[in-house]
Amino acid sequence: MDNFSKNKNKKKKSGCLKSFFIILAICIVLVLLIGAIAGLLYLGTVPTLEELTPAAIAETSKVYAIDGSLLTEFHAEENREIIDFDKMSQNIKNAIVAVEDKRYYEHQGVDYIRIIGALIADIRSRKIVQGGSTITQQYVKNVYFSPIQTFRRKINEAVIAIQLERHYTKDKVLEMYLNTIYFGAGTYGVEKASQVYFDVSASDLTVAQSALLAGLVRAPEIYSPFNNLEKAQSRRNLILKLMYDQGYIDKNEFMSAITEPVLLNTEQININTRYTGRIAPYFIDYVKQQLYEKKFTDRDVFKGGLRIYTTLDTGLQQNAEDAIKKVFPEDPGPSYALISIDPANGYIYSLIGGKDYNKSKFNIATQGKRQPGSIFKAVVLMESIKQHFSPNDKYNPNGPIVIDMPSGPDWKVDNYGGVKFEGDMTVVDATIHSVNVVYAQLMMKVGADNVERLCNEMEITDIGNNPAIALGGLEKGITPLDVTKIFATLASGGEYHQPVCILKITDSEGKVLYEYDPEKNEKNLRILDSPIAYYVTRILERVILEGTGRGANIGRPAAGKTGTTTDNKDAWFGGFTPELATVVWMGYEESSKPMKKINGRTVVGGSFAADIWREYMKEALKDKPVKDFNAPKDELVDIEVCTVSGLLPTFWCPKETLGFMIFVKGKEPTEICNVHNKVPVPDVVGLSIDEARQIFTDLNFVINESYEFNDIYNENIVFGVDPAPGTILESLTGEKLSATLQVSKGPQTYEMPNLIGLKKDMAEQMLISLGIPIANVIYDFSIEQPVDKIYKQDPLAAAIITKNTDVTIYISKGEDPEGTIPNVVEMTEVDALAALNNAGFKNVSVQKEESVKEIGKVFAQIPDSGTKYTKISEIIIKISRGVLVPDVTGKKKEDAISALQSLGFIVVVTPNPLAEGKVKNQIPAAGSHINYGDIVAIEIEVTTSTTTSTST
Asked: What is the 3-state secondary structure (H, E, C) of 413-437?
């Protein structure tokens, strides 16, 4: 081929190549142009930062005790606490930047160098295998987009990252990143991770700790020191090397940090639970329940970063747990609950809701409705004194008794264990000794409806209105929390304060979302007047001092009540001091299961429950000064009232309706009974004034008496009443009603004239002038008046008579020729003659004869006395001359004495009673007359004889 041909071919090839490159260039430009247009079109579809809604960042909620100490935390999958940038250690900031984005402070949100390297790796693998995301992009991914990796999402991340860094400073973006990233173990954000892994705040992280946390971000579960400490330490050391290479630490810091041992927080959280509670788990549950009742949602509670300030006193909570451990060093078998409230404000200071939270999360203290037994007598006592019934009223204490129930079967009541008492018993003593029979009777007077209403005022419901509630037979039972309300109300002097466990709730930045204000709580109200509450308290004090609650004595003023249910299924002790109201319950969660003896001791309210209460209260109050219950300024007065109306009694209230009731001074009733103030006037006409007066006196009338003559009714007989019998009288002031009794003075009276010596016709005229007829005329012999003249009258002269008086006159017929001989025996002669003469016997012969009768006295009369005898006939009376004294001179002494004594004389021998011989002389002389039994003295002539003695 010639040169021309060669040159021609060369030119041809050169033109073709040139055309190719031109075409290629045009194609590249077109591709770039199309790409640019497509890119611009795509960028138009990418939302702006303002258009995106960031995902809500979950933040852990915190629960604090009353002293500000942390109790527990609520969190869901993301256990997070957001903090400010200046509260983060510089070490963690450096460590994160060193490992995650070493050019963080150089780029504008996207690290193009890192992206190209990542793209090459992704193209080679034909999938996304390596991230080129900066810290800003990671934050955007976590907050604005789903975790699914696509090219489109990565482009969107890059665009939004650039916008984000134009909107926020680098430090702000890093702060938001460190508050959101996941560090493993259920923790989100550097603050919570610091607490969980090292039990320190993020502000206190060391270089080594920061490197370990930074190493977790890429693969938290792989590098978790809780899962593999060796891997975690190796990863930490790698991060430390990066920090050293990038100049964040020097060699000495590097060497120190790399040799620092990994000291972890051994009390790490259990990521499978929603909260961790080191103390008072049942209280924490109750707090959570209250949050829901205050309309906080699950999201608020577990992700909302709430700061919940509660009433729990950690010291008192520990006291409660210690008290139970002291009483029960080993598991007693039954469960138990304790709740303690400040009476002044309702703050719940301590709460134990069961024996083991890990085994049963059922909160008996706030949810367990159990039968209260006799502890409920406290409410009946409150209501009875509120209704003014005196606790000194007496009742029969012995059972069994049967109470007729109008709307149901009869109610049979007996005392616990069938115990008996002597005599009637006051309500005070029945409270001290927990006597069922007395309280059943009291309940029938108080009314179950009223007791239920009192409970409702304290937000205690489901009580029922069966009278059996007096002994603890409630419709659905009652929780220990509700029982505590009763005693807290008494301890506060009668004011009910709704139990409170949450004082304030804020968000994580301190904004108040809720704050308890007792002044605005409409549930807080006065239930009892303070004097009534004080009176009940003083009675319940004696339960501890001398009654069933003696085991709860803490050596300072305290009041309380025991309670035990049938078969010992529940045992209660509730009590209070001025500072605390506390209730202890024991029993099984299965309400039908009875409790057996523990260590040989029966489980009743006065045993173990009282022991726990005592140990808790002693410790809880040991550093507080002894304080007595405040006596109210208003005194109580014990006033007698009509128990039917509750008002002051009238004079007509039946005795059985009267009773003493308790009132606050100044609030006692001032009006009189309006039930027993109407009285009908009784009908007493025809009764004597004494009988009528008694009837009106018994009816408490003021009696006026009016005496008038009356021809129908006898003297002192009531013939009329004003107002008329049957009239209804009403007392409006309580003063006695009055009535006038009209009493007969009898008929008109006259003075009986003297009719003696008058003849009949004159006497008749005299009486007829008075309107009085002569009723009877009797003729008889009389020597007092001549014949035909009145010698006697009946009534006597000057006697008071009426027209109804029967007048009798006696008219003389002259002297009676015969008479009855009077008895004159034993009379003297003069008296006998006078008596016979007065009898009309004047012919009397007197004969004097010897007689043993007294000298000068009549010893016989002829005829005998009583003989009807003509007055002119002779009557002989014989007068005693006495007994003739015989002549005993010359007689031997013995004969003389015998002769005299036979005649009834008393013989005296002179001069020598022993002398023997003949009577020489006698006094009185022979022939004298003396009375029978008189003395006769005889003188003995003594003969002298000579005695010759011959000696041989």
From this structure: ECCHHHCCCCCCEEHHHHHHCCCHH
Other beta carbons within 10 angstroms of residue 269's beta carbon come to 19
Do strands 800-802 and 307-310 pair parallel, antiparallel, or not at all (unpaired)? unpaired
Structure tokens at 659: 């009773």
Residue 172, CA atoms < 13 Å, CB-side half-sphere: 6
Element holding 495 (H helix, E strand): strand 495-496
Q: How far apart are the first and last CA of the chain?
A: 251
Q: What angle do CA 635, 636, 637 make, to 5 degrees?
A: 120
290, 491 Cβ separation under 8 angstroms: no
Q: Please state the φ and ψ torsions of residue 807, each to the nearest 5 degrees.
A: -105, 130
Q: Residue 13's pLDDT is what?
A: 55
Pair 694, 737: CB distance under 8 Å:
no
- C-alpha distances in Å from residue 472, one per residue of 377, 430, 468: 8, 15, 7
pLDDT score recorded for residue 471:
86
DSSP class of 277 = E
User: Under DSSP, is residue 593 helix (H, G, I), strand (E, B) or coil?
Assistant: coil
Task: Write the CA distances from 868 to 145, 834, 846, 863, integer angstroms.
Answer: 160, 18, 20, 9
- Residue 302 near residue 75 (C-beta atoms within 8 A): yes
Residue 803's identity, in one-letter code, is: K
* Cross-strand partners of 500: 347
Which among 83, 503, 505 is positioned nearest to 297, based on CA atoms?
505
Please state the φ and ψ torsions of residue 905, each to the nearest 5 degrees: -90, 155
Distance CA 253, CA 460 (A): 66
- Measured CA to CA, the distance from residue 410 to residue 436 in angstroms comes to 16
- The CA distances from residue 405 to 389, 412, 444, 644, 831, in Å, are 22, 10, 10, 20, 92
Q: Is the separation of the CB atoms in 500 and 309 below 8 Å?
A: no
Q: How many CB atoms lie within 10 A of CB 704?
A: 12
Secondary-structure percent of the chain, ordered helix, strand, coil, rounded to 5: 35, 20, 40
The per-residue DSSP string of 28-97 comes to HHHHHHHHHHHHHHHHTTSPPTTT--PPPPPB-EEEE-TTS-EEEEE-SS-EE----GGGS-HHHHHHHH
Of the candidates 475, 410, 420, which has an alpha carbon nearest to the alpha carbon of residue 444?
410
The model's pTM is 0.58
DSSP conformational letter for 509: T
As beta bridge partners, residue 722 has 740
Query: Residue 933: how many CB atoms within 10 A of its CB?
Result: 12
Which band of pLDDT confidence, cut at 50, 70 and 90, is reported for residue 947?
Answer: very low
For residue 473, which of 333, 593, 376, 606 has the smallest C-alpha distance?
A: 376
Mean pLDDT over 744-771 rounds to 91
Torsion over CA: 355, 361, 362, 367 (sign)? positive
Strands of the sheet containing 935-942, edge to edge, are 906-910, 935-942, 917-923
Report the pLDDT value the prediction gives residue 153, as an integer from 0 to 100.
63
Give one DSSP letter per residue of 150-202, joined into a string: -HHHHHHHHHHHHHHHHHS-HHHHHHHHHHHSEEETTEESHHHHHHHHHSS-G
Mean pLDDT lowest among 22-31, 104-113, 369-378: 22-31
* 571-577: average pLDDT: 98
820 CB-side CA count, 13 A: 3
The residues near 406 (Cβ < 8 Å, ≥ 6 apart) are none
Burial of 460 (0-12, 13-18, 19+ CB in 10 A): buried
Integer angstrom CA distances of residue 329 from 302, 321, 664? 37, 11, 48
The SS3 assignment for 122 reads helix
**Overall size of the chain counted in residues:** 952
Tokens 């309500």 locate to 427
pLDDT(255) > 90: yes
Do 92 and 306 form a contact (C-beta atoms < 8 A)?
no
